[in-house]
Amino acid sequence: MERGQDAGVASALRAAAELVAWVATPWALAPRSWVLAVVSVVVLIGLPTVFATPGDKKSVIVAVPGWVTVGLVLLQLGAAVAASWAAWPVWAAVPVSVLCAVVVVTELPRWRWLLRGDA
User: How far is 84 from 92, CA to CA, in rounded Å?
Assistant: First the structure.
């Protein structure tokens, strides 16, 4: 996989969206169940930490195929969008939705690489 300025921008945007998911999801779930709020953080942070595609990350605890990594990113993006709309006002949820749409576009080269199985 090519690593360059474009990959750095994509990584930064993905990290920003992940951070939003980590904040917005427990925020949206806490009024319903503090247990679900805690579980959401464990899932959103823990799964990508434990499961990774070799070649995509320097340190891999449990190796998984590329489609799993793509699925984990989509989980993060979906959580960020859904939770921001559930928990925050429109003026905050709209930029999150735009950010996640941009992440999808910037992630496409990485996802193609991951899904080819070259990882």
Answer: 7
Per-residue DSSP letter, 66:
H
The string of pLDDT tens digits covering residues 69-87 is 999 999 999 999 999 999 9
What tens digit of pLDDT does each residue of 18-69 get? 999 999 999 999 999 999 999 999 999 999 999 999 999 888 999 999 999 9
What residues have CB less than 8 Å from 116, skipping those under 6 apart?
66
Nearest CA to 6 out of 102, 73, 117 is that of: 102
Question: Under a CB-based contact definition with an 8 Å cutoff, are residues 108 and 45 in contact?
Answer: no
CB contact at 8 A, 93 and 80: no
Give the list of residues 6+ apart from residue 34 with CB closer than 8 angstroms, or none. Answer: none
Residue by residue, DSSP assigns 11-65 as: HHHHHHHHHHHHHHHHHHHTTT-HHHHHHHHHHHHHHHHHEE-BTTBS--SEE--
User: pTM score > 0.85 for this model?
Assistant: yes
